[in-house]
Amino acid sequence: MPARIVTGAIQLVPALASATVRSAWWGIRPLTPDDRPVVGRVADGLSVAAGHGSEGVILGAGTGQLVAAQLLGGGLPFDPEPFEPGRFATSTG
Q1: Residues with Cβ < 8 Å from 34, sequence gap 6 or more?
Q2: pLDDT tens, residue by residue, 14-58
Q3: What are residue 56's phi and psi, to 5 degrees?
């Protein structure tokens, strides 16, 4: 898979053919059980933005806007409820 990505990148930007590769990594893309990312505050001073699966690049800008608004207190760009980290919490009675 990494070789295919490099080949495609070189086709788009031929100058990359002479670039030095310093490291490479690839792996799984975490996804939540309901296929929606987890975005929001989980504790005082701790926010999370994870579980985007293969949609991380596509959803990254919106996630960044939401996190920034939550941290800085601005107007929210969209309803954060579907992405609340607490939606997976279970009650112990």
Answers
A1: 87
A2: 999 999 888 877 778 889 999 999 999 999 989 999 999 989 889
A3: -55, -45
Q: What are the backbone dihedrals phi and psi of residue 21, each rounded to the nearest 5 degrees, phi first?
A: -85, 120
**Cβ–Cβ < 8 Å for 39, 49:** yes
Residue 2, both tokens: 């990494």
Q: What is the CA radius of gyration of the chain?
A: 18
pLDDT tens-digit map of 49-90? 999 998 988 999 999 999 999 999 989 999 999 999 999 887
**Is the C-alpha dihedral spanning 8, 12, 18, 22 positive or negative?**
negative
pTM: 0.67
Is residue 85 a contact partner of residue 66, using CB atoms and an 8 Å limit?
Answer: no
Q: How far is CA 2 from CA 6, 7, 17, 70, in A?
A: 6, 9, 14, 35
**Which letter does DSSP use for residue 36 in this model?**
S
